[in-house]
Amino acid sequence: MSDEKIVIGVDGGTTAVKAVAFDLSGGIRATHHESVPVNYGKLGEAEQDMEAIWQGVASCLREVRAQCPDNEIVAIGLTGQGDGAWLVDRDGKPTRPAATWLDGRAGERVNEWTKNGKAEKVLETSGTTVFGGLFPVLYEEFAENDPDVLAASATHLYCKDWLRYRLTGERLTDYTEASRTFLDVTSMEYSQDMADALGMPEALRLLPPAVASDAPGGVVTEEAAAQTGIPAGTPVGVGMIDVAVTGAGLRAVDDGDGWLILGTTGFVGRLQAKAADRKSNLSMVLATGRGSQVLEFLVPMTGTPNLDWIRDVLGFQDRGWDEIEKDARSAPAGSGGVVYLPYASPGGERAPFLDTAASASWMGMSLTTPNSQILRAVYEGVAFSLVECVDTLKMGGDLVVSGGGFRSDLLCEILADTTGQRVVRQEAPEAGARGAAVLALVSAGAAKDVAEAADMLKTGMEEFLPSPEKYDIYRRTHEVFKAARKAIQPVWPQMRELRRESEA
After folding, report:
1. Whole-angstrom Cα distance, residue 489 to residue 452?
2. What number of helices (H) and strands (E) belong to the chain?
3. Which of 12, 230, 254, 295 is most buried by a 10 A CB count?
């Protein structure tokens, strides 16, 4: 066997799952991913086959092991998509497809909860704003429309918990995921009071024990070893929800630390000493398991689909992103007065403001407006949305960024120039898997704490310094951006109604 030890991070994403092997200096030694489909229904359903997700991860682990056949595996770390309903019976068999965080069948129920006080109770106890893919909302949906499924179910396991169960046979979760069910983020216990107030006192029976994310989560069983190629007895960590695990990989563990992620949606989060320190009633809060500390975060819907969309609109499908970004750079900072409101998500916007009717639009154009200004305005609009979240959470100091969207140098520069803060980007990819691997090193006893493990697996960082000249331009442009949004927001509902009528 090779003297080089490795740790494997598994990331159960929404559209793809992956496994990444890191050496204990943070270098990537092997990686493999598999696509996993999301099945959409006419009533807003967004479901996934839980067995298919497991098989995809098993395939990833086999491939990674094949690339590192002689290396000693110190541990397996886990992360994955959060929220939804992932139900299994007493034998560990799924009782239905997983309803994912994207599920929208309970949209009207969310509106009812907002009116009848249930949403307020959820926010008061767990620090979470309600939406269609939240487990308590889906539980009520199934209780009303599919009660036999709930009767047959024994445990609710989120994505990474389901993967751990298949690897180890252990039914566990961590505090970040428990915060998305019935956890009281002050007492760190499941709240019977919250369950009673929501009219679902029996729901707590489905919840597995919540433990620290860097705690041991069992070992690979003989059955899992046969499916994955990972030696039986290999330690498996408990892990953490995907939006939080990046912090572990970035060594963001102390109160005040924060980071940003840009993918399909955005993420702007900051660690707070306690839930009472939260800065916004539209934020979400996750207990980290480190005393009273919580992760407060905002999830704007204004992510990279905006960039994909403008690429298609301008007919640039055959052009690489480097070339597209070069075109955007040919326009001046501020895009010549063109403003893009990046609210293209069909579900509207939820941070730093809530408006389900929010719509995307360009403003300030004329017959002389070139494509380069239209294009650059999209980059600026996406960045401005993140800046508002940074301001809301009062994030000072360096802005640490991760995620596929921030591979764009231009986005990093606009973020730095608008905030006047240095932007720091992790050079190596696979931040989620790296964070999962960091936690696994602690759970396996290979590091004393998360900070030490993060130092072991750290990677280089790139810096983007703010331009004093552009700071003033972008601050003025951002003010125009907010004023334009305020002006058009009153007619968003009518626009949505016209869209629905045209699609009927």
Report:
1. 48
2. 18, 25
3. 12
- Number of other residues whose CB lies within 10 A of the CB of residue 146: 12
Q: In what order do the strands lie in the sheet with 39-40?
A: 39-40, 46-48, 98-99
Q: Would you tell me the crossing angle of helices 159-168 and 50-67 to the nearest 10 degrees?
A: 60
Strand positions, DSSP E, 158-263: 173-174, 183-184, 189-190, 210-211, 216-219, 235-237, 240-241, 258-262
C-alpha distances out from residue 366 to 28, 363, 371, Å:
49, 9, 11
Question: Backbone phi, then psi, for 227, in 5-degree steps?
Answer: -85, -25
In angstroms, the CA 31 to CA 16 distance is: 13
Residue 265's DSSP bridge partners are none
- For the chain (504 residues), the mean pLDDT of every run of 10, in chain order, is 85 94 95 94 92 98 97 97 96 97 88 94 91 94 96 98 98 96 94 97 97 97 98 98 90 91 91 92 90 93 92 94 97 97 88 89 97 98 97 94 91 98 87 94 96 92 95 96 97 89 75
**Apex CA 30: angle with CA 26 and CA 34, to 5°?**
120
